[in-house]
Amino acid sequence: MYPTVKRFLDICISAVSLVVFSPLLLLTALLVRLTSPGPAVFTQKRAGRNGKIFTIYKFRTMRRDTPSNLATHLLSNPESFITPIGRLLRKTSLDELPQLFNVLRGDMSLIGPRPALFNQYDLIRLREEAGVNRVRPGLTGWAQVNGRDLLSIPEKVAYDREYVENLSLRFDLKCLLRSFTSVLSADGVKEGGTGRRP
């Protein structure tokens, strides 16, 4: 029952949010274009529900010459690729706003495990074993508010599994509220970090 309600809420909230945040979306796109060469929106192939590959949308925060199919933590010096405005967008998570279109399309949910890159086979495999891949990935999720970039891949999967096993409106609201506080405090933001706790 709840998955149906969850999808209905995803459609309603993402549609309203796109209208409400349209000035911010346009302003951010303009700033990205004016501060570095390249398109305002960055696309990338990600693994979605049941392993289905989809195209994710993000505001571009890195230079055009950045390897597009490599996870940030695998870059030798991720900081060197980030644009000046990109640093702010990543810290505030504003770069994720275009994913509201992904939510509206049904590729993603507002709350759920963050979608893995199509070639992050270790993460995808562990999520498959944990039953995580049966739900839509999300804009934010339980792992995001419990360490984000500071979590190792097994730790992320453990939080993802906990989320799936406790899927409910109450848990989604808990994730949403904690996401706001995490964004405001930039909690867990560490470029290139995957399990690299301070």
From TrEMBL:
Source organism: Candidatus Pullichristensenella excrementigallinarum
Matches recorded under InterPro entries: Bact_transf
Lineage, broadest ranks: Bacteria, Bacillati, Bacillota, Clostridia, Candidatus Pullichristensenella
Keyword terms: Membrane, Transferase, Transmembrane, Transmembrane helix
Protein name, UniProt field: Sugar transferase
Record's keyword annotation contains Repeat: no
Record-annotated Bacterial sugar transferase domain positions: 6-184
Assigned protein family: Belongs to the bacterial sugar transferase family.
Any one GO molecular function term: phosphotransferase activity, for other substituted phosphate groups
Entries under Pfam families matching the protein: Bac_transf (PF02397)
Transmembrane segments: 12-32
